Amino acid sequence: MVTDQKTALNIEDEMRSSFLDYAMSVIISRALPDARDGLKPVHRRILYAMHQLRNTHQQPYKKSARVVGDVIGKYHPHGDSAVYDALVRLAQDFSMRYPLVDGQGNFGSVDGDSPAAMRYTEVRMQRLTAELLADIDKDTVDWVPNYDEKELEPSVLPTKLPNLLLNGAVGIAVGMATNIPPHNLTEVVDATIALIDDPTLEVRDLLEYVKGPDFPTGGLIIGRGGIKQAYASGRGSITVRARAEIEEDAKGREAIVVTEIPYQVNKTRLIERIASLVREKRIEGISDVQDYSDRQGMRIWIQVKRDAAGQVVLNNLYKMTDLQTTFGVNMIAILHGRPKVLDLKDALVAFIDHRRTVVTRRTKFDLHKAQERREIVEGLGVAIDAIDRVIAIIRGSANPDVAREALMSEALDGFAPFLQRCERPEQEVEAARGRPYHLNERQAKAILDMRLQRLTGLEREKIEGEYRELCAEIARLEAILADARLLMKVIRDELSEIRHTYGDPEGRNAGSGAPGSGGSRRTEIVEAEDDIEPMDLVADESMVVMLTRQGYIKRLPTEDYRVQARGGKGVKSGGGRADDDFVSAVLEAGAHAWLLMFTDTGRVFRKRVFELPQGRRDGPGKALVNFLEMRDDERVLEMVPYRDDEIDGDRYIVTVTARGYIKRTHLSEFANLRKTGLIAVNIDEDDRLIAVRFTDGKQHIMLSSAQGMVIRFDEEEVRAMGRNARGVRGMGLRDDDRVVAMSCLPAAESTETETETEEAESELQVLTICANGYGKRTPASEYRTQSRAGLGLITIKVNERNGEVVENLLVNPDDQIIVITSDGKVIRTPVDGISVLGRNTQGVRIIRMGKGERVVAVARMVDDGDKREDDDEVEARVGEISSEHAEAEDEPEAEDEPGDDDES
């Protein structure tokens, strides 16, 4: 409590009152626009000061300092920098959809450059601005005293344009803020005309005309949901995205070219942000960023690395930079002296009501002026008819005042003939006939001021013609005031003229789809995406995924490996980064597929195939530790692809360890994986995970050992278990043996022995590949079904020539395989080029091996029938193979005696 001898004030009450006064001052007089003309006080004062200076689009430019001086000296009690900043914004074509000031000089840029000082720049009004100030001198708006009460300023401009929506507004007041986006003039005027024609239209109806915001910097609006919400409630969120295209040069390298950026985004900061993300390696795949923008337009050039997908890089840029932003719509404006949240219809109704008031006041003003002028013309016409008497009165008067009084007291004749010559209605002429005409003071003064040349016949005809025109104009104005429909027609016609004069010419995005719309939009509206998923921007093409022993992974299009004949040298695939690293796993999957990555410790991670780094055929790939939270002693050894639609139903993940333990787990157990991974199977300390397969629960499992043994049993013998279980015994092993491969084949596969070679070629076959590059095909029917946990049957003779078994695959004759060696060589060859031999044989050469080289991975892929351009080269290479060498390699070893394979 503050007290003295005179007053006693509660400080809380005083603070509350003072703060409310300050808040209302900021809200009403500074930060928020008026709903009628869409202008804040500072902008209104700038435009009115330029109007007073006659600084129109038809006049020469004036120094900005001159305008700023008039504004702060007469109307705006703030600093010159605040006024100049507001003036600059009115001239920036990247800030205003329809700039109101024509600037000459440096007014800043979209890069965030500061404008030149106001003593250097020059301004004048745009042609469009005249429509905001039209009829301001016809008592169309109220006037209020300025801050020192020595001048009057308009409380609002009598705008013919719905400027609140055309240019929008941004302002932060006390306790509230406004953020109104700019719009297309043609669309807004069309909606206004439609609302005039039918005031019962709702927001959903107006959306047929106003498609959405139209930003001066262009870009794309993603989805219509945010637009509808903003227009219906006055608040909403609109996603704005840069316009970018992916270009490809003659060498096949991709580049992202950005030609339009979201509204209010600083281009320089955007480029700096992209460069920062590249340096921090948060965005992979960008090698260079350049800004080639000039006067002709914007062009940001982003070079994409050869091993990266341009669409994925662009998607990451949308997520992590201002190439995509959210515009928060908050349509708050001053209406009837109070801040109010406006929906689309409210904003248009506020403008229409304002125009109704302006046109009514303008009509009354014009009517009053026309009536006054008709009165003068009428007096002149009567005086000319009685000119001799008028001249006599003037000559007989001592001074003008006496002459004026004498004329006013004189009863003149000739009013009826004047009206008759002016083609007035007969009843009006008859009413004036025989009635003396008395001049009033204004008429008497006009007669005294009349020049003698008005007495000529031609001048008399002009007076009569003017009187006729004035009578017609008065009748028109009175009709407008008497009929609300005519008043609204005047407003409608003026809006149509505005649209015709200032509507955007048709261009790239011409036509909003609204009735009568013909202007072009700068901002295109595209259908919404629920989320920005890279999958939506990546083609679901077939990919080869390669994993090295040291944990480097990459993906490449399947087409990068041309088909070669059996016995070819293969092509270089790249392997690991170190000399002792090599590819340990390879598979084929669609780019949109999920990839479950199982580690040797029994944990599992999940990624989309396209999220893996795309590499060159001879490149090393990227380390998994960069995007998987793996432990130091952990490595990924198996990858299983699956599709989203396979989660439901009977889908299982079958795992097997080197010691022969097998487990079956439903795929749904892996549907929600943490970034840190989940336990897929418990592994003993002396054991390791060696294979993972994807089944439908109705398969036969085939396990293969390094010493050439195979066991086949029904999958149903392995009951479904949880992720944390170890599993059950799948295959019995000798002391020096281990499980190296697992295959799954349909349970309905025939077990009858085929006798004819052609029939054997057409059925499902088992392809066995050994470490030294040898292998063979064997009909699957030669592997009978057994109970799990047995030793199995012999599938190939393991000796020094062949080496240990590396992989057993189920193939069809029209399949292709990829074979990868420890030196990083890759051969892609058709299966039908590999000999079909019995189980108890050694096989034939699949790939030529160098010294110390061995096969480390094999993958099956389906032939797509696409003949590449270099197939002729492959066929020529096949022809060069020595026939003697081919015969030596293809000759099978003699089979053992029957019964040697029954080692169960």
Write the layout of secondary structure elements.
Elements lengths: L1 E2 L4 E2 L1 H21 L9 H12 L9 E2 H11 L5 H12 L9 E4 L17 E4 L3 H5 L9 E3 L6 E3 L8 H4 L2 E4 L4 E4 L4 H13 L5 H4 L13 E3 L2 H9 L1 E7 L1 E6 L5 E7 L6 H13 L6 E6 L8 E5 L5 H11 L3 E7 L1 E4 L2 E4 L2 H42 L1 H9 L4 H10 L1 E2 L2 H7 L4 H7 L4 E2 L2 H8 L8 H26 L1 H19 L6 E2 L9 E2 L2 E3 L15 E7 L3 E6 L13 E2 L10 E8 L3 E6 L3 E6 L13 E2 L12 E7 L9 E6 L3 E6 L11 E2 L9 E7 L3 E7 L3 E6 L13 E2 L9 E8 L10 H6 L2 E6 L3 E6 L13 E2 L10 E7 L3 E7 L3 E6 L13 E2 L9 E8 L8 H9 L3 H8 L14
Helix pairs in contact: 2-3, 3-4, 7-12, 7-19, 12-17, 12-18, 12-19, 13-14, 14-17, 15-16, 18-19
Give me a quick take on this structure.
The protein is an alpha+beta fold and 904 residues long. Helix content is 29%, strand content 24%. The protein has 22 helices and 47 strands.
Notes on the structure:
The protein has four domains: 39-158, Topoisomerase II, domain 5 (Alpha-Beta Complex); 243-322, Gyrase A, domain 2 (2-Layer Sandwich); 355-485, Topoisomerase, domain 3; 539-890, Neuraminidase. It is built from 22 helices and 47 strands. The chain has 904 residues and is of the alpha+beta class. It is elongated, with a radius of gyration of 45 Å. 29% of the residues lie in helices and 24% in strands. The longest helix has 42 residues, at 344-385. The N and C termini lie far apart (102 Å). A hairpin with a 3-residue loop joins β28 and β29. α3 crosses α4 (80-91), α12 crosses α17 and α14 (400-409) packs across α17 (441-448). The strands form 15 sheets. Strands 16-11-10-23 form a four-stranded mixed beta sheet.
